[in-house]
Amino acid sequence: MALRTISAKSAAALDQELMSTGGFSIDQLMELAGLSVSQALFRLQPLSKGKRILVACGPGNNGGDGLVAARHLYYYGYQPTVYYPKQSKSELYQRLKKQLEDLQVPFTEDFTSALQNTDHIIDAIFGFSFSGEVREPFPKVIEALASTKIPVLAVDAPSSWDIEDGPREDGPGKGFMPPALISLTAPKPLVKCFKGTHFIGGRFLSPSVAEKYGLDIPKYEGLDQVVEVPVENGKL
Ligand SMILES: NC(=O)C1=CN([C@@H]2O[C@H](COP(=O)(O)OP(=O)(O)OC[C@H]3O[C@@H](n4cnc5c(N)ncnc54)[C@H](OP(=O)(O)O)[C@@H]3O)[C@@H](O)[C@H]2O)[C@@H](O)CC1
Ligand SMILES: [K+]
């Protein structure tokens, strides 16, 4: 199956359109995005293979997807730990954080130590709005993601990858190739460089919006919020 990709600019425009004329709120989109991330994790790492999930969250909506996923994972029976060093003060993020605190989901400030007690990592640091050099406090975290043997599920983009061109050739993140990626709504152009297990999530695209943006809606089965779309030879 060949799915078309969406540029960072169009992905941001699509988001805005869903919220302005599409009748969605950001809470809804983030909830569905985070739910799909939790389902992808469940497929990769059934509870019997280890429950300790480290969710690394960045300052934007990619990080918000991670906070939502952590909550769903808790209810599935996992033991999520959240690393969220640059916290947004906006009301939505404060609510997502409160929901996790009420479940006594731990927040850690020490990513490196947390890695020692983790079965799987969710990379929700940067999504389609990432650009330029990785700024503090994230270079060390990206380096750790690039070098760890613990499996990583990247949300929308492997953090530090250029959204159009893919992996970095130098600096933190050089050599970062997570074993799994979930693209939200549609794959970003960087997917051409990805080698690993690839899912699509974000089951909220209407046929008319998909047509307008030149996107494909993958065939979701039943209750699933994710569909696996293999990447072979650099092509979807
Ligand atoms: N329809 C969909 O598909 C939906 C998509 N959703 C999700 O939203 C994601 C896009 O979210 P987004 O636009 O908030 O930006 P995101 O990628 O999280 O990062 C921006 C933050 O990172 C920062 N930053 C940037 N560059 C940096 C650098 N070099 N070094 C350090 N920091 C850097 C930047 O900080 P600042 O520039 O302000 O300092 C900003 O705060 C998308 O990928 C998907 O996961 C769902 O939630 C909803 C439905
Ligand atoms: K990411």
UniProtKB/TrEMBL annotation:
It holds the Pfam family YjeF_N. GO terms for cellular component: mitochondrion. SUPFAM superfamilies: YjeF N-terminal domain-like. Binds 1 potassium ion per subunit. GO terms for molecular function: metal ion binding; NAD(P)HX epimerase activity; nucleotide binding. Keywords: Cytoplasm, Isomerase, Metal-binding, Mitochondrion, NAD, NADP, Nucleotide-binding, Potassium. Its EC number is 5.1.99.6. The keyword NAD applies. It comes from the Eukaryota. InterPro entries: YjeF_N_dom, YjeF_N_dom_sf, YJEFN_prot_NAXE-like. Its cofactor is K(+). K(+) binds at N62, D123, S159. The keyword Transferase does not apply. (6S)-NADPHX binds at N61, N62, G63, G64, D65, G127, F128, S129, F130, S131, G132, E133, D156. It catalyses: (6R)-NADHX = (6S)-NADHX; (6R)-NADPHX = (6S)-NADPHX. PROSITE patterns: YJEF_N (PS51385). It is found in: Cytoplasm; Mitochondrion. Residues 11-217 form the YjeF N-terminal domain. Its main location: cytoplasm. Belongs to the NnrE/AIBP family. Catalyzes the epimerization of the S- and R-forms of NAD(P)HX, a damaged form of NAD(P)H that is a result of enzymatic or heat-dependent hydration. This is a prerequisite for the S-specific NAD(P)H-hydrate dehydratase to allow the repair of both epimers of NAD(P)HX. NCBIfam families: yjeF_nterm. This is NAD(P)H-hydrate epimerase. It comes from Epicoccum nigrum.
